């Protein structure tokens, strides 16, 4: 068939080619090589066409043959199917028979002998059956094996059964035992129940009996309570009566309360009145105490001496120069701060004052010493603080100080401010300041608009005997700022006024007058205290021959006023009837503040260097003399020397008597109390 197909394709192809060739126009081409080939091909074509016809015949033959063979194949297949069905039927039948035989064998096996017989007959019966038999035998064998196995199993089972039988027997025995026990327990329980029942009955009977007894007692109690109730009723009646009585009282209570309030009010009023009168009494006592205090203070001032003299030694400065002239000539007593030693012309001289400040003492140390004086000003006392000493000894430093380290003036005002502040709840204070200078016995206002104007000191027209300076400017100050402004104003006034302020100020007295006026808010009491801070003119003496003209006049004025100051102090201390205040402008101006119960402090400034020892000696003598004015009451008048202006000018340091040894002779153990003793007395001028 394949070959046939190939040939067919070949044929188709050839036919196609032939068609093509036919379609081409026939070009006669003589002598062309193709014509020969064409004829050859034509021949071949015809040959091939022949072959195709031949093959076509063969193909149809073959097709026929294939058809026949296919038919036959279908027939065979049909037959095969039938055979297979037959075979299946046969197999079915055989298997059915085998089953039957097996069953028969099994049944026969049950009755062995006839089975054997049957087997024999069956053996004879057919070979087929024989075969089946052999199969069955093998099966039988297998079954017998199984049977044996089953038998074995059965045996085991029997064994097990036996075991379980035994177990059952045992269990039965146990059950019987348990049952017997149960029986016994039941019996016991019954017995116990019986006894419990009896107990119960007995208890009930007992309880009943007891209850009866208790009942009886309760009955008896009840009878008692009944009788009690009968007695309580009257008590209840009285209580009710009481309650009613109280009720009545409560109703009357507001009236009572009002009554009580009235009486209490009256009592309180009375008490307040008493307190008031007590207060009045206290106020009266307070005033009396105030008076007393002032009196005591006066007394204290009188006893202590109202003039105190301290010395302050300034440090050696650059201005002192160098060499032997600038060596230190002042020493101190390490155990006694009231002694100062001076080496003058090779001889040691000692002085005793109230206190001596060494060059190392600070401004605050010095201020500490004068603090009490300043506060007494608030209580209405007048106070004078003088700085005395030769020019350059430190008077201005002590009084004014430097801006960084202010002196007494500023510190005093600060202290006054703070003290006044503290008392502000009871007292009202005003603090005013004035500044003045005395030059050549002329008083000028440093805070005024006309600093050149000469001021006069006058008696108060109110007849109080007090002095006042008409036209002296007074500034009220409340703070440190205010003071600074005032000082600055005064300083500016002076610098414009004087070409050489330093020189001028060393020859004039500068005064800062602080007035503290107070009113006691509760009593209306008024006080006025004056604090005079005086930077005195230089105390150095000018030789008569050395100075002339202005310089001599200045020196004379200074000398006169310082002498007058000494005289006044002397007269005051000796309680002389006449005190020569009017001898100088300074003493006259300060009259109020120097007399009476006022207090005075003299700070004697000392230069420590060798070249100044003469002036130092002079200053210390002046100081000691001022201080020694006050002595025992009997000796006051007799020991007091007169102190003329001439003396101040010409008094030579002739009496160099006080030797350090003189102190050693004073009574041992006499201590500070004996200070106004030997040295001071020895210093007194004989006449
Ligand atoms: P006075 O006013 O007596 O003429 P000053 O107060 O002007 O003397 O003092 C003279 C110089 O000595 C000033 O330069 C001053 O600063 C100085 N000075 C004075 N005392 C002291 C002191 N305690 N500590 C330091 N310097 C001082
Ligand atoms: Mg000065």
UniProtKB/TrEMBL annotation:
Membrane topology of this protein: Peripheral membrane protein
Residues holding ATP: 389-396
Top-rank taxon: Eukaryota
GO MF entry, a single one: microtubule binding
Compositionally biased region (Basic residues): 678-687
Keywords: ATP-binding, Cell junction, Coiled coil, Cytoplasm, Cytoplasmic vesicle, Cytoskeleton, Membrane, Microtubule, Motor protein, Nucleotide-binding, Phosphoprotein
Disordered: region residues: 634-687
Any one GO biological process: microtubule-based movement
Similarity remark: Belongs to the TRAFAC class myosin-kinesin ATPase superfamily. Kinesin family.
PANTHER family the record matches: KINESIN-LIKE PROTEIN KIFC3 (PTHR47972:SF5), KINESIN-LIKE PROTEIN KLP-3 (PTHR47972)
Descriptive protein name: Kinesin-like protein
Organismal lineage: Eukaryota, Metazoa, Chordata, Craniata, Vertebrata
């Amino acid at each position: 068939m394949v070959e046939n197909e190939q040939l067919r394709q070949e044929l188709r192809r050839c036919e196609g080619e032939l068609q093509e060739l036919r379609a081409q126009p026939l070009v006669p081409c003589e002598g062309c090589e193709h014509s020969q080939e064409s004829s050859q091909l034509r021949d071949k074509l015809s040959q091939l066409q022949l072959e195709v016809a031949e093959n076509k015949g063969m193909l149809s033959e073959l097709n026929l043959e294939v058809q026949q063979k296919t038919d036959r194949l279908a027939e065979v297949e049909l037959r095969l199917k039938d055979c297979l069905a037959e075979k299946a039927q046969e197999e079915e039948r055989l298997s059915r028979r085998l089953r039957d035989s097996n069953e028969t064998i099994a049944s026969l096996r049950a009755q062995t002998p006839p089975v054997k017989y049957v087997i024999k007959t069956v053996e004879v019966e057919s070979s087929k059956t024989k075969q089946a038999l052999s199969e069955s035998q093998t099966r039988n064998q297998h079954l017998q094996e199984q049977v044996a196995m089953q038998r074995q199993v059965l045996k085991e089972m029997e064994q097990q059964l036996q075991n379980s039988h035994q177990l059952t027997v045992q269990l039965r025995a146990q059950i019987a035992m348990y049952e017997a026990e149960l029986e016994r327990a039941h019996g016991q329980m019954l017995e116990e129940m019986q006894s419990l029942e009896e107990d119960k009955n007995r208890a009930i009977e007992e309880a009943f009996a007891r209850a009866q007894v208790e009942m009886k007692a309760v009955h008896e109690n009840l009878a008692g309570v009944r009788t009690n109730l009968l007695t309580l009723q009257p008590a209840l009646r009285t209580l009710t009566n009481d309650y009613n009585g109280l009720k009545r009282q409560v109703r009357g209570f507001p009236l009572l309360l009002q009554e009580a309030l009235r009486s209490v009010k009256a009592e309180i009023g009375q008490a307040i009145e008493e307190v008031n009168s007590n207060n009045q009494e206290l106020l009266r006592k307070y005033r009396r105490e105030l008076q007393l205090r002032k009196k005591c203070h006066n007394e204290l001032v009188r006893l202590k001496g109202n003039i105190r003299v301290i010395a302050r030694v300034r440090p050696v400065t650059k201005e002192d120069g160098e060499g032997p002239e600038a060596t230190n000539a002042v020493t101190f007593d390490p155990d006694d701060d009231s002694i100062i030693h001076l080496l003058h012309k090779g001889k040691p001289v000692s002085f005793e004052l109230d206190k001596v400040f060494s060059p190392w003492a600070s401004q605050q140390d010095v201020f500490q010493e004068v603090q009490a004086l300043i506060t007494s000003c608030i209580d209405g006392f007048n106070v004078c603080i003088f700085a005395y000493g030769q020019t350059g000894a430190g008077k201005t430093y002590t009084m004014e100080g430097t801006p960084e380290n202010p002196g007494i003036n500023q510190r005093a005002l600060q202290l006054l401010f703070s003290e006044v502040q503290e008392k502000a709840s009871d007292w009202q204070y005003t603090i005013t300041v004035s500044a003045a200078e005395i030059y050549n016995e002329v008083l000028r206002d440093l805070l005024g608009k006309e600093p050149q104007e000469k001021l006069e000191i006058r008696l108060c027209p109110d007849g109080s005997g007090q002095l006042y300076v008409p036209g002296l400017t007074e500034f009220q100050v409340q703070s440190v700022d205010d003071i600074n402004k005032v000082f600055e104003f005064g300083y500016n006034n002076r610098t414009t006024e004087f070409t050489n302020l330093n020189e001028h100020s060393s020859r004039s007295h500068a005064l800062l007058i602080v007035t503290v006026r107070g009113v006691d808010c509760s009593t209306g009491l008024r006080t006025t205290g004056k604090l005079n801070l005086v930077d005195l003119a230089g105390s150095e003496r000018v030789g008569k021959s050395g100075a002339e003209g202005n310089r001599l006049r200045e020196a004379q004025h200074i000398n006169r006023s310082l002498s007058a100051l000494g005289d006044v102090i002397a007269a005051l201390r000796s309680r002389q009837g006449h005190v020569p205040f009017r001898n100088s402008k300074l003493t006259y101006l300060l009259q109020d503040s120097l007399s009476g119960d006022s207090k005075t402090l003299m700070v004697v400034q000392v230069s420590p260097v060798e070249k100044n020892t003469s002036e130092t000696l002079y200053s210390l003598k002046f100081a000691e003399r001022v201080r020694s004015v006050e002595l025992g009451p009997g000796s006051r008048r007799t020991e007091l020397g007169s102190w003329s202006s001439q003396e101040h000018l010409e008094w030579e340091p002739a009496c160099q008597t006080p030797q350090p040894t003189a102190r050693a002779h004073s009574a041992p153990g006499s201590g500070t109390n004996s200070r106004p003793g030997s040295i001071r007395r020895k210093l007194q001028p004989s006449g």
